[in-house]
Amino acid sequence: MCNYMENFSSLFLKDKAKFIFGTEVLNVDRATQGGWSVEVKDLESNVNRTLSFSRIILASGVSSLIDSTSSRPSKADQLF
Question: Between the CA atoms of 14, 7, 77 and 74, what dihedral angle is there, to the nearest 10 degrees?
């Protein structure tokens, strides 16, 4: 997934978006002046920090639940 996002970003979002990999999102809140405040933990250094963004994208990974080898509905299909 990391390679896909890096390629997509370089082709379509150059200088428009920033991706930070190797992090765990701890908290997301609306900022008081608008936008979003996102608390993350760097998984390599184990350091927490808070970042500010005007927009965020929530990618839940629910599509990874799809079982392409079965004709039965997947767990993801049952969620909707």
Answer: -160
79 in any annotated domain: no
| Domain extent at residue 29 | 23-59
Tens-digit pLDDT profile for residues 6-46: 788 788 888 877 778 888 999 999 998 899 999 999 999 99
49 belongs to a structural domain: yes
Determine phi and psi for 2, rounding to 5 degrees: -60, -45
- Residue 65 within any structural domain of the chain: no
Residue among 8, 1, 53 nearest 31 (CA): 53
Residue found by looking up tokens 């920090």 in the block? 49
C-alpha distances (whole Å) from 20 to each of 31, 68, 73, 77 are 20, 29, 33, 29
Q: Is position 50 within any domain?
A: yes
Nearest to 25 by CA among 8, 43, 2: 43
